[in-house]
Write a structure and sequence with these properties.
By secondary structure, the chain is mainly alpha-helical. Helix content is about 75%, strand content about 0%. The site of adenosine-5'-triphosphate has 12 residues, from helix 3 and helix 4. This is Diacylglycerol kinase.
Length: about 230
Amino acid sequence: MSSPAPYSPPPPPETPRPPAYASRGGTGVLASFRHAWDGLIHTAVHQRNMRVHLVSAVLVGLVGSGIPLGVAEKVILIFCVLLIFFAEILNSALEHLVDLATRHFDEKARLTKDAAAAGVLVLAIGTVVIFVSILVNNWETVAESGPQIARQVALGLPLTGCVTLLVLPHRRARWMDVSAVVVGALLLGALAAYSVSSVFTAVNAGLFILAASAARQRRREQAAARPPG
Ligand SMILES: Nc1ncnc2c1ncn2[C@@H]1O[C@H](COP(=O)(O)OP(=O)(O)OP(=O)(O)O)[C@@H](O)[C@H]1O
């Protein structure tokens, strides 16, 4: 005769939580884009690793827009960046799915989340290896690009600082975010004027818009979570 299953107390009733972001209706193509954009912003706001990828991608973009690389190298770098973003977004989706299935410790839940996180890790390590190999293979070009590198560092590091500030989860005064957007946009413009690759300039502009949108969404969520009065 099989022994009765051990008693486990019923889970505490879940307190209703406000939606992470306002759900927008609609089923058209435009609505699909908006939902996808909301998902991207939500991942950037709530996933620490996504914020790390975003800042790292800006650094890759600065290298790509400062040093003249071949088409193949550019395509590989952009593809790696996109692949990491894709993996992190999928990892985040899986985490939500697991949390939806169980709010308790569960071995299968742990395996699922760990496997999804491993997928991102493998891609991130691969990207670093590819990035270093590309720089080593183009070392002559890199060595000849001293002034360009100095300019990318002078303009690019403050831009990276602006993006980092925008994605940081800590509460801060509104003027800090506004200043980061204004200064970042000016730096982007200056970098675009000297860029050797319009594709990487566009990538950095896209990442900057993503960081600014994440900052705006975070402020909205923080304002919504604040007790009234
Ligand atoms: N329900 C669960 N049951 C068992 N282990 C869990 C559960 N939820 C999370 N874990 C473990 O905790 C780790 C972190 O899970 P969490 O949901 O906090 O994701 P996270 O910190 O956002 O992860 P990541 O660093 O991949 O973004 C998981 O990789 C897993 O090992």
